[in-house]
Specification:
The structure is a single chain. The protein is an alpha+beta fold. The protein has one domain (about 5-210): Beta-Lactamase (2-Layer Sandwich), CATH 3.30.450. It has eight helices and eleven strands. It has helices spanning about 5-20, 25-35, 45-55, 60-70, 105-115, 165-170, 180-185, 200-210, and strands at about 70, 75-80, 80-85, 90, 95-100, 115-120, 130-135, 140-145, 150, 175, 195. Helix 1 packs parallel to helix 8 (about 200-210). The protein is globular, with a radius of gyration of 16 Å.
Length: about 220
């Protein structure tokens, strides 16, 4: 099992952000669209245009975000880990239930969105139900209390950009499990995996995406 520290894993994941972060206006527009999406409805093209105008976002930035999103006829339905589509990971806010591309998404999305939530999922190894309570400040509870998170370390040269590519290369291997033994027996060793506590999973989210909460 991977012996990399949380900081080392974060460094690899952060590098995957770097190219897009250098695109003018990219971060601000992604955050606005994700927050709009968290209200539970598709983000229509005209809404995206209004948000882009607020930041004077270049057209190529809008196109880049569109390329990495999930779309339906009504607009964007998935972006940066949050989705209105089907998912085994269900993120419950007070009045809205969303999906996430992987279990870890919930740990960094809640601080970005700024609202407490509860993530319900199932262990892919045993189908045991797992529930994690999250606030913008951290994980506040889990059932079972022994819940852990799997993560894989992408190759630094990965070129995954679209929603489907990111899910195939990363998200499909990132889950909550009822305990460490179950997680370690499930994660494919050839994918450079690690198993983290929920607290370390939240810290990983802050190291990779924490700056977006203040945007």
């Amino acid at each position: 099992m991977n012996a990399k520290s949380v900081e080392e894993i974060a460094l690899v994941l952060r590098r995957m952000r770097d190219a897009r972060d250098r695109i003018p206006g990219y971060r601000a527009l992604v955050v606005d669209v994700v927050r709009e999406l968290s209200l539970g409805m598709p983000v229509a093209p005209e809404q995206i245009a209004e948000l882009a105008a607020k930041h004077d976002t270049p057209e190529r930035t809008i196109e880049e975000i569109g390329h990495s999103a999930e779309w339906s006829d009504g607009g964007i339905v998935g972006l940066n880990g949050l989705t209105l589509g089907d998912s085994r990971h269900r993120l419950h806010f007070d009045d809205v239930t969303m999906g996430t591309w992987c279990a870890w998404d919930s740990l960094f999305l809640v601080p970005i969105i700024g609202r407490a939530a509860r993530l319900e999922s199932t262990s892919p190894a045993t189908n045991v139900a797992v529930e994690v309570s999250i606030t913008p400040e951290g994980v506040t509870g889990a059932e079972p209390s022994t819940t852990v998170m799997s993560v894989v370390v992408p190759h630094p040269d990965t070129t995954a950009k679209t929603a489907a590519e990111v899910q195939a290369a990363f998200c499909h291997f990132v889950h909550f499990f009822e305990d460490r033994t179950t997680a370690e027996s499930w994660v494919p060793t050839e994918r450079d995996p690690a198993v983290l506590s929920l607290e370390d999973g939240f810290r990983l989210g802050q190291l990779v995406y924490g700056d977006l909460a203040a945007v």
